[in-house]
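**Entry details**
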Amino acid sequence: MRGLLLTFVLLAATAFAPAQAQRALPGLAEGVQYRYIDNGQPYRALPPGMVEVAEVFAYTCPHCAHFSPMLEAWAKQLPAHARLVLVPGVFSRDDPWSRVFFAAQAAKSLQVLHPRLFAAVYETGELPRNADAGQILAFAGGVQGSNAAALKAAMADDAALLPKLKQAYDFGVRSQVEGTPSLVIAGRYLVLGNSYESLLANARAVVDALAPKKKPAPPRAAPAAKPAAPRS
């Protein structure tokens, strides 16, 4: 995510609990499957034992549009200890695409709108990549299953949007994200790959390496010896 130049009003910094993370992962090579992020932190706090897989994406990125359905199918095969979270690349506080993402989330319309926004730009041509907020809202409000009134209200709610925009911006910066799409696991591992398929394969390998260690089963008690049969 290049050119992240953003000036925000002062907002309270998000507090994170100290993370216990290992730089070396068993069976993997740093610099090949992943790059370790010093002082990295997850985008969101998850329950203990859970691993966050964060995708940093942009609706204006054609690679993200192609990758999105592949990532969705891949996420359905994740083990129980991993969870996918989407993080829009934030380029300015007034970027309509990142604002509409959080507005759709607040309006409970994101599941419907996320694939439709990609399709509108790269398949149907209903929206240009440089669409403004009005154009995006007009399109999104007409998508079946979206809540047009709630979406419009959320899009104008700076008090709710600015902290979310800042959180996403800060995550991209501290995770050293240089382009989209990018996958960051547990806030500490930026996944590497030279194709979409290798990116997903390496991400799964990192997820598996971070699986909670299973407690060894307690030893079974030895069966009681049978008494010897009496001799006649």
About this structure: Helices lie at 62-75, 96-106, 110-122, 133-141, 148-155, 158-174, 196-209.
